[in-house]
Amino acid sequence: MADLSSTGATDELALNVEACFEAKRERIETKAGPIEIACMGEGAPLLSIHGGPGGCDQGLVLAMPFVRAGFRVISVSRPGYLGTPLESGVSFDDQADLLASLIDALGFESLPVMGASAGGPVAYLLAQRHSKRVQALVVIDGVTQTYSKAEQLSVLEEAIFLSRPGLWLMDWMGRHFPASVVKGLLTTESTLREADLAERVQEVVQDPEKLSFVRMLMRTMTEQFQQRQEGLRNDLSKLAAITQLQLDAIHCPTLIIHGDADADVPANDARWAHQQIQHSTLHTIPGGSHLGFWIAPGASEAQSLAISWMRKTPEPSGVPRF
What we know:
8 strands; 8-stranded mixed sheet; 16% strand; 15 helices; Rossmann fold
């Protein structure tokens, strides 16, 4: 059984985003199939669901605000990513069922859940299909409607973002010319105009925490790229097949966070979820790109809201077996 207590790192290391790559990965056998997890932090447990391309390391990077706030993040590698075989869940419905089985295998009856981007559909469907498993839900820039990014990508964008050499180049550029990489990301991930874009790039480059996030996010897409590619291709196929997710059976407290300048996943996806889920709360990040929750001027406010949202939930029920 997984050791979900502490990563064993020093307090200083645990608060450093680079520690996400040093967290021990474990393979958990569930009734729905094997799944890889990594854990970080101490305190109330929280399940983190990454986007694409990603893995359990990315789930830790995305959830670092919660780690710093005193949560113990349990991050998964979705099927096709890193140590989780695609056969454990090809469809998003199957991935939601896999996570429900994981919660059971870890000895919990329910957990608070955070999902981002391409992990959004799985987070939503986990709460939709297994309502008793999710205590509270926070979804950041999550997909709820048709996502046809693969069809919209230019030849250059595909060469950069969907190939190992392209992502390696982005990682190298990030270490030597960070402003260029930040600008490249915001150009593709936001609808910001030139003047606002230039100002945002400078804000990120001059903020050590935000720049570190961008660098670490790139690492979660470049390192072990071969072990992420199958999951990415599956994601693009399944995201394109979504019409509109049915989310009307979600009854847990739900916070939906989305940037209003997100060029990757339109803000309409968040509005659709808000309409579908009774008593949900929608928080819009002004000028927020697809990475707005972490690097926008309003990131701190959005993170504080999400953290307070999760803190309102009762202690996860069940007797954890670890």
